Amino acid sequence: MTSSVGGGVASALQLLWILLAGPLALGLMRKVRSRLEGREGASVLQPLRDLRKLSTKQRTRPTDSTWVFAAAPVVLVASTVVAAAFSPLVTLSALLASRVDFVAILFVLLLGSVSLLLGALDTGTAFAGMGASRAAMVGAMVEPALLVAILAMSLGVGTSNLSRLVGVGVTTSALAGPARILALVSFFIAILAETGRLPVDNPATHLELTMIHEAMVLEYAGPDLALVTLGESARLVLLLGLFANLALPWGIASGTGALALVGGLLAVSIKVGLVAVAVSVFEVTTAKIRLFRIPELLAGAFLLGVLSVISAVALR
């Protein structure tokens, strides 16, 4: 199998995995939260059933909305799929792995966030506009923290190539360095904020004074809501997968052989599952912070990134 064909197969496998793992991870997180709260909870497969049910319902859209509202869910899913296909999730040898930059992957994902924000504004409702303005505020503070964290990890390797950043942890002791640890903590806080998890946002609430993400998607229904749910869950798993592989790169395949891909698929599934369970436990034991305290949390993530950069420069 040539490298280009093998890379294409690996990317296709990652694409299929991310679309399936997204709803399953969402179901797992809900199940863990329910059990910790003393409830039985729905099955882990319930998000897949919800997607199937939504896809069969009638599509309704606001009267005054334009093509922007209709295109937002499609762009959200497409941007996540493109980012997943080229990211080192199952293997380090995915399609175009040697050319994929960490910053480029994040900005591809940012296209989905911006499209959803514009779709909310396109409805013309005050409620969706409130959610969009809050999401824009959070996004404006998350991006600097993400970029500084990437810079810190890149300084130790000499490149921001995502496969190299993951692969260096397999062969060296870079994971034990203070720069990498601080950068990963900053990256993790940014992930929680970007995906609307506690303590920044509560994905289970519908209180209009507190919610951010739910306010933007209340106007979606039927297949459109199914696409939004699929895109958001897939993006959550993608970011958790990148964090897991950057923190614990062991198990990821270095080639595109069948056995290597199966091993890499099993490894990333286990790691993402463990991180998802840890996030669920954290959400049960914490409360949502006030809206005006969110800048303090994200400023702390940015400061950790800056300290990571200083450590990386000092230890070079």
Which key features would you list for this structure?
0% strand; single chain; mainly alpha; 70% helix
Please work out how many helical segments DSSP would assign: 11
Tell me what portion of residues adopts beta-strand conformation: under 5%
Using only CA atoms, what is the Rg?
19 Å
User: pLDDT below 50 for ≥5 consecutive residues: which ranges?
Assistant: none
- The secondary structure category is mainly alpha
Estimate nothing, just give the exact number of structural domains: 1
Overall 3D form: globular
Helix proportion of residues, in percent?
over 70%
Mean pLDDT: 91
Major sheet: none
Write the element-wise H/E pattern from the N-terminal end onward: HHHHHHHHHHH
**Terminal-residue CA separation:** 39 Å
Total strand segments: 0
Structure description:
The chain is globular. It has one domain (3-314). The chain has helices at 3-36, 46-55, 67-86, 102-122, 126-157, 162-171, 178-194, 213-217, 223-247, 258-284, 294-314. The model has no long low-confidence stretch (mean pLDDT 91). It is an all-alpha fold and 316 residues long. Helix 1 crosses helix 9 (223-247) and helix 3 packs parallel to helix 9.
SSE topology:
Blueprint: H1 3-36, H2 46-55, H3 67-86, H4 102-122, H5 126-157, H6 162-171, H7 178-194, H8 213-217, H9 223-247, H10 258-284, H11 294-314
Helix pairs in contact: 1-3, 1-9, 1-10, 2-9, 3-4, 3-9, 4-5, 5-7, 5-11, 6-9, 7-9, 7-11, 9-10
Summarize the structure.
This protein has 316 residues and is mainly alpha-helical. The protein is built from 11 helices and no strands. The chain has one domain (3-314).
